Amino acid sequence: MLHLTQVETMGMVLLRLALLLLLTFSSNNVEGERDQEVFCGACKALVDELLYDIRKVNPKRTIDVGSFRISPDGTQERSKVPLAKSETYLTEVLENICDRMNDYQLQVDPQTQKRTFKRFAPRKDEKIYADFKKFYFYSDAYKPLKFACESIIEEYEDEIFSLIAQEADYLADKLCSEKSGLCEESATHTEL
């Protein structure tokens, strides 16, 4: 009877080891692969939403930035920057921006078969928004787009702040192609 228990124990150890190896190898494959179409689409949608929020802010509004410490000579290193380009404002916007990925859908160009994400939902300040909200649109299909958006913000937050502070033209191309490599180079410099 003792012999049978040892065999059972050995079998359980081997089973656990096999499961551990299987999980280790399968998680490396999933973790290393990114769906370029989804990440590129999420990056462009993120830029689209970000630029929309920046345009809504009055360009005359500013915020004080810098240190509140007084230097030995009695001065403070403070300056005013446009609110829409401040790290404070951008951080606030980026906190919930990925929730808006539900407003995008995957579209396939019938001629080129190129797949892109396009915004289909109206924005809150558009007249049709009230009628649109009477309908409920939700799909699990947007979850990968939302996850990609959150991953991009986590990985490239500093680059986003820097590009906006520099007033970079063609923000989608700069962030999505040049800085992150998530999209192929765009020759046309188009924003969503």
Structural class: alpha+beta
The largest sheet, given as strand count, sense and whether it forms a barrel, is:
2 strands, antiparallel
- Residue share in β-strands: 5-15%
Work out the helix count: 6
Share in helix: 40-55%
Mean pLDDT value: 77
Task: Tell me the radius of gyration.
Answer: 24 Å
* Global outline: globular
Strand order of the largest sheet: 1-2
> What pattern of helices and strands is seen along the backbone?
HHEEHEEHHH
User: Which segments are poorly predicted (pLDDT under 50) over 5 or more consecutive residues?
Assistant: 11-31, 187-192
Count of individual beta strands: 4
> Distance between the terminal alpha carbons, to the nearest Å?
72 Å
Question: Would you kindly provide a brief summary of this structure?
Answer:
With 192 residues, the chain is α+β, with helices and mostly antiparallel strands. The chain contains 6 helices and 4 strands; from the N terminus they run H-H-E-E-H-E-E-H-H-H. 19% of the residues are buried.
Would you mind describing this structure in some detail?
The protein is α+β, with helices and mostly antiparallel strands and 192 residues long. Helix content is 51%, strand content 14%. Helix 2 packs across helix 5, helix 2 packs antiparallel against helix 6 and helix 5 packs across helix 6. The chain is globular, with a radius of gyration of 24 Å. The C terminus is likely disordered.
